[in-house]
Amino acid sequence: MLLTLTTTHQPATDLGHLLVKHPDRVQEFDLPTGTAHVFYPEATAQRCTAALLVEVDPQRLGVGRRRAASTPESFTLGQYVNDRAYAASSLLSSALSTVFRSALRGVSRDRPELAGSAIPLSIRVPVLRCRGGADLAVRLFTPLGWTVTAAPLPLDEQHPEWGDSRYVDLCLTGTVRLADALNHLYVLLPVLDDAKHYWVAPDEIDKLLRAGAGWLADHPERALITRRYLAHRRALAGQAMARLAELRLADVPVPDDSVDGATGPADGATPVADPRRASLAVRRREAVLAALAASGATRVVDLGCGGGALLTALLADRRYTEVVGVDVSTQALTVAARRLRLDRLPQRQQDRVRLWQSALTYRDDRLRGYDAAVLMEVVEHLDPARLPALEDAVLGHARPGTLVVTTPNAEYNVRYEGLPAGRFRHPDHRFEWTRAEFAAWVDRVAADHGYTATISGVGDHDPELGHPTQLAVLTAVASRETTR
């Protein structure tokens, strides 16, 4: 079975650094079920392709396995008479986790910034067993920002009247972080195959949620993905769905009110946009990360961190030596700890992370002196009367070197189908500002507390209404003598 990864990011040979596989060498890896080979059919500064070729050993495939009676190879000669040698399946997913382990985690010693950035990618799996047909492949990958081509393969090219086989030629193109792309494949290849080659134990739930962090909880097909990934084991699927529901609940401060995403705003509002685009939640997170990187911060506190989506991205970037998540909800902090896998991280990684329960409207000495702080989709969850307390606690007392704030643009709400006039994007919002209202607030708090400020937007720009998300970056001035 074969999978190819191609990028035109320049220099394209940086793909070798991200995969930790040198383009000038053919590398071989022993697997429990065979052998994997990594090589580069092309490697230039303009275009680079890495290929993963997996050779399955039928004898090893059948040794020491517990197999459910419903799997296609459960008859006596099944380990020899099957399609596993050439059709991509859960075997390819397992090979990805073994061969590209660092890349799956988003870790690159030589190119850490690139590992955290979206790059142009083209992925091809020429023979993929797809139970549900090409349409299912499109439904699974499109909401993740991919342009999908899934061409059914004929049973016999010489006899087109026989119809299509259960296999597709899958091609994905998009601008995606490499780690995200590999995790999409790691989860969805066995889902499309719908027949795992190994026994599914309870720890598979953790694997699923770890690989699905940041996208699975909001995927429109999350129930199907969960059920198939866990081999239709109802009890495990139920546990996984419950944990996904916790993630969605804990991420209330960062609702997916995307005009571009696969899921729309709360209360049935549905945006009109291309579903192949990355969701606004993802684009917002990327914009915040870019602002933090530009500030030069190394010690960052995420105020109102929710379930830890931003914390996960911060921890994956080695430039940040200290990452703090703060939330008033202990449940949210529990979910964040689970998402970050704090109990499994090496000690040096654990030392970089802190999770603190605290109300953002009260002064907290622990929050003083950080290089940067983030209020991502938080301020609109406070009653307007409590905003002065937030301003004093964050800008007056904690006083980070940089503060990044995002909030919805109320003017853009008319672009959401099904969102009644005068209604907010999320039921917990206490207000939503127009662009003028947000600019006035930013200018006032910056002047009151000795900061300069810039305002921009996130998401597709509407010439009349602006961006769906408003973003401000406040930077502390060197001296506060003139601010009091």
Question: What does this entry look like structurally?
Answer:
The chain has 484 residues and is an alpha+beta fold. 32% of the residues lie in helices and 23% in strands. The chain is built from 16 helices and 16 strands. The protein has helices at residues 14-19, 58-62, 90-99, 101-104, 112-115, 133-141, 178-193, 203-211, 222-229, 234-250, 280-295, 309-316, 330-340, 347-350, 387-398, 435-449; strands at residues 2-7, 27-31, 34-43, 48-56, 118-129, 147-154, 164-177, 270-271, 299-303, 322-327, 353-357, 372-376, 402-408, 416-417, 451-458, 469-476. It has a 7-stranded antiparallel β-sheet with strand order 2-3-4-1-5-7-6. Strand 12, helix 15 (387-398) and strand 13 form a beta-alpha-beta unit. The chain starts with a strand and ends in an 8-residue tail after the last strand.
Outline the secondary-structure elements:
Layout: E1 2-7, H1 14-19, E2 27-31, E3 34-43, E4 48-56, H2 58-62, H3 90-99, H4 101-104, H5 112-115, E5 118-129, H6 133-141, E6 147-154, E7 164-177, H7 178-193, H8 203-211, H9 222-229, H10 234-250, E8 270-271, H11 280-295, E9 299-303, H12 309-316, E10 322-327, H13 330-340, H14 347-350, E11 353-357, E12 372-376, H15 387-398, E13 402-408, E14 416-417, H16 435-449, E15 451-458, E16 469-476
Parallel strand pairs: 9-10, 9-12, 10-11, 12-13
Antiparallel strand pairs: 1-4, 1-5, 2-3, 3-4, 5-7, 6-7, 8-14, 13-16, 15-16
